[in-house]
Amino acid sequence: MIKVENLEKHFGTKKAVAGVTFSVERGEILGFLGPNGAGKSTTMRMITGFIPPTAGRITVGGHDISEQPIEAKKLIGYLPENAPSYADMTVYGFLSFCAELRGLHKDARKKAVNRAVEMCFLEPVVHQSVDTLSKGYRHRTCLAQSILHDPDVLVLDEPTDGLDPNQKHEARQLIRRMGEKKVIIFSTHILEEVEAVCSRAIIIDRGKIVANGTPAELKQRSELAGAVSVRVIGVPADVVKSRLSSVPGARKAAIVREDGGAVLARAYPAEGSTNGNLARGVAEASVQAGWKFEELHTEEGRLDEVFRSITWSETGKREERQ
Amino acid sequence: MSDACQNIKTIAKRELNGYFASPVAYVFIVIWLLLNGFFTFSLGGFFEIGQASLAMPFFRWHPWLYLFLVPAVGMRLWSEERRMHTLELLLTMPITSWQAIIGKFLASWLFLIIALVLTFPVVLTVCYLGSPDMGEIISGYVGSALLAGGYLAVTSMTSAVTRNQVISFILSIVICFFLLLSGFEPVTELLPNSLVGIVTSLSSLTHFIAFQKGVLDSRDVIYFASLIGFALFMNGVIIRNLRAG
To answer: Which of B10, B86, B96 is opposite residue A84, by nearest beta carbon?
Structure first.
């Protein structure tokens, strides 16, 4: 549905996007991750046809965005960063205006606006002017604008930014529901959101894709992934540590926390050890040693750790040089 | 093609409603009418000259009034879109930037024409007092509308240059002032004879004065049409460069 090939964007001598290639198919919800200034918004602006790429090609539903911009834009609904809207218009007026630009007139327009108002929970404010709205409502007004024409492709730049936890939850539900039949690309800073919503995630750093996979695959890249944590009572920490590091399949062991008489320790898997083996090993070792353990589980790996290790390693190096 | 017209209409309608949704439009119209009344009856010596004509007492002031009032109307056209980031929203709709430029321009022009039409009592007055040359009055109104359109196109262009309305206001006054002065006699007298012809032919004032005198000449119409066309074309170029970054 969307194909991006070797996309580049230069601002002066700075490369905001430096060779990005990916494709998304119907039914996928693609999360765009990356530190501030990584090129997420620039990439989205190019996909939606707001700014032309310096090099590379984007096709949306088979239409090249540079050569057939109108046909391509018709397929896209777009929520820009900071959710802009015309402050002097009412919510209804604004949505009607957008619907008309989308080629919806008369009854079709009315129907589309009412549907979007309902989906984004805007009924209470529909006749208020946009500049009297709270940030959450303003955000949803712009989101409603993007789904008016029931587009095949939704590009959402930080759709949950500035919403309260309940609204965030609603927005995520909405995205997940719509993602069943559409292509959704959305950017976010919130990693739990990626796990909750995305079927695939791309991490961008300094204009390049540094990771591309399902949230589970990405988590596998975490150091923590596959590690086994165990909480033992009444055993000295160094004993636990040395016992765990000699479990078959363990690369090393570490003490995470000691409180009262309890020790939380973790065994990290050696390369090539399959899931489950290590947990069994740790359990057997604990039983043999006669420990009382309260808890034993295999870690899934954490996305924030992966994110940091991929994107901050570069930042760290840069800071060291300075 | 019908899609293009429809899009232009949608954008123009929003823009025009935007004017009347705020008190600014009414304030503008009142100021415009008051200034017109003051200049016509007091400075223009409408009664003193003893002629049933609007050329000297009424239309003569329009180039100078428009110099400030048209930039005030047009300064927000694009700068506001840039400041509020709605430009991104507008240009990712399935429309071309030309449709947006023309739609916005037409809406503001229509607003200025509405303000101009509201000066009709002065026509009634002159008809009541004497029997004026209606052709001259119509030609004066056509010229005045074209002049406002020319200034407005320049303002639309300057408002795309910046996010700041004040800067766009001042820039367009400067440009319009040059267009005006290059045909203003006290200035053209200072020029060497060889240049006078070229400079005055570029001036909006020279071409407006023909309309004011009741002369509907295709060359003057073409002048204003090309001024509008050129300024809006530059407007498009500026917006394209803005997007290219």
So the answer is: B86
